[in-house]
Amino acid sequence: xxxxGIASHIGDVRGVQDSDGNMxxxxxxxxxxxxxxxxxxxxxxxEQGMPFHNDMGTSVLALHYRQCASEGGSTHLSSAWTVYNExxxxxxxxxxxxxxxxxxxxxxxxxxxxYLAPLIQYxxxxxxxxxxxxxxxxxxxxxxxxxxxxPPFLGDNAKTCDxxxxxxxxxxxxxEALDTFNKVAHEHRLSVPARPGDMLFVNNWALxxxxxxxxxxxxxxxxxxxLVRVWLHDxxxxxxxxxxxxxxxxxxxxxxxxxxxxxxGGPHRRNKVNHKYPIMPAVNxxxxxxxxxxxxxxxxxSDDEDDDHLDRCQS
Length: 315
Hints:
CATH superfamily: Clavaminate synthase-like
Number of helices: 7
Number of strands: 15
CATH architecture: 4-Layer Sandwich
């Protein structure tokens, strides 16, 4: 409650984090989840490291450190402006590639399964970055995923239908640009010392973040990394996202800014469900259809199963 109260002074609007209406996400690994292999869990639900990225769907990233790992798991920040200046001086071709609006970003709940956008853009004098390597290009559905429902017209084909096949793969040049971007961000990183109880608020458009791999302590004891994530937007002070970066943002904040949904033609359902504040993570891990996406606006199964926007699959 204290975390949410302080967060309300940073941003007066909270974003929806998934199609179930959850307003909080638990960045942790519950002991019972380890029965599910890492490859079937989202990156934030494993002990693996994560490259530099930002949450493609929020203005301010808010994190509350409930517990820290017994070993590793440090959070690192890197300034978008610093990375930009380094790329401009030494890697101009990479900077041009990042600013070109031809990056396929996979989405859900829309007739098209992706849109094309730049990863770096100026607006009102602000350099803004919207980049998550796990959200770029084609993401393949888990073969082990078991859907709970299918539109009746799909029949048995629903089990093999993967709309992500429509999404273009990244080019060699784009993959090289991402590698260079992450390398430069890593060289200019600022490590954030954290203790249980700390809160971190990040301008998500201007700062990128990454995570070291970590090792949790014994079950039921201290030293088990557990962060709570909230997405925020302040109607007076937050930067207004450019149209090219607004689709994931509208998915999170469209319940307060419905015009943004109409402008982007993006997801609708998560703006209609009841909002939930789960105090603790679920004990049983539900295997998602897609595990791609290091953090925000992950393609989730329930979106793909909605027959309002799912096109017919070909056998």
